[in-house]
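B box-type domain-containing protein
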Amino acid sequence: MKEECGKCKKSLQVSSCHGCEQRFCAEHVREHRQELTQQLQHIIANYHDFENEFNSDDLLRPYFSRIERWERESILTVQRSAERARNDLCQIHEQLKSNFKSSIDRISMDIEHVRQANDYTEIDLKKWRKQLKQLQHVLKSSFTEDMIDDSQSSIPMIQVVDKNHAQTSDGSDLPPRLKFDRGFGKIRLSSNKQIVKCTGSHWNGSTICCNTLYVSGIHKIRFHINQMGKQNPFFGIVSTLEDANPWNRKTPFAYGWWKIPWDREKPTEDTSIQAGDEMTLTINCTNNEIELENHRTNQYTFERVTYEKCPFPWKIAIVLYSPGDSISIVS
């Protein structure tokens, strides 16, 4: 059956493209494949350019320059401050030496006078001892630890802030509080996006993600289960390189749990999850691990994440199943 070609608009035998869902005649289907090939080559070239960019030392050079400039300026500032402090200390010392010299000279003259005359008693000795102790006390109290005040430093210490530890999904800096973000299924969020509620049944549950992406570091996120039905909520992660719904057939590699696994060696321990529980999900990008802890039962479990199946960046995924299920972010 002949149909219209999407390029030449002629009625001919056509082939369908499952990507753009257009139909092309034999001539233009080849042309379309050539266009796709060129686009693919362009993407490959862009990836190579990106790889060369982050592997190049040129990326760090301006930041090293800033650190070195700060180092030079800070050293100069410290040296100037140290020189001022040395000068101040010398002035204090010279002033004390001048004050002490006049007192010591006077006392020395008195002592020499009575010594030559051999005219002194215990009263004179006691007086000179007392005067010496007074001078020693003045000297000791003039030079103490707190005369050097290093708490007024005006040099801010430089540091490197790793913004890749956690970012919002739009690439901006991490907000003061984590928020729920994109959802699938029957989901309703509170006005501050700190509380999520399932509003109806969905064939494979309703998924909510958070707005923060994780690529490095260790992060602990605490949730409170406000309400839940017969089936436990799912706590875990998915890769942002895939669809956000962990149960979509195209993204089978979600990591997480519906419950704390039962330990055969500890059959009496409570591994249940119920309304009112607070759960902490730990995302350890350093060791490619995640951990879930129930604070009511003091039970926890962890799992290694296979990077090839769930590449960075990661984001939190929570699945709710029953109408009324509700979870809030604590911290």
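thats it. Confidence is low (pLDDT under 50) at residues 167-176. The chain is about 35% helix and 25% strand. bye
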